Amino acid sequence: MSSFFAFPLAVFFIFVAPLWLFLHYRNKGKAGQGLSYEDGQLLKSMTERTDKMQKRIETLEKILDSESPSWRER
Q1: Reduced to 3 states, what is the DSSP secondary structure of residue 68?
Q2: Are 58 and 66 contacting, i.e. CB atoms less than 8 angstroms apart?
Q3: pLDDT in tens, 40-69
């Protein structure tokens, strides 16, 4: 009965466990790096564009509120 478990355990510890550990820690290393420089610049650019768009929308809403106060109800 003990040899029944010994072979699968040996296969697991010789082949599966090292591969599993290698892949696990490789993924952890990639996840810990954070954003690349290019991704950071893209995020910064998108944030700036979003802020500009938000300001434009607020301005347009103020204009519409003054010219047509019931535009939101349509």
Answers
A1: coil
A2: no
A3: 899 999 999 999 999 999 999 999 999 998
35 CB-near residues (< 8 Å, 6+ apart): 43
Using alpha carbons, list the distances in angstroms from residue 14 to 6, 9, 10, 21, 57.
12, 8, 6, 12, 62
| Residues 51 and 57 sit within 8 Å (Cβ to Cβ) | no
Q: How far apart are CA 71 and CA 60, in angstroms?
A: 12
Query: Is the model's pTM score more than 0.70?
Result: no
**Which one, of 60, 62, 64, 66, lies nearest residue 74 by Cα?**
64
Q: What single-letter DSSP state applies at residue 14? A: I
Q: What angle do CA 27, 28, 33 make, to 5 degrees?
A: 100
The pair of three-digit structure tokens given for residue 5, joined into one six-digit string:
């478990």
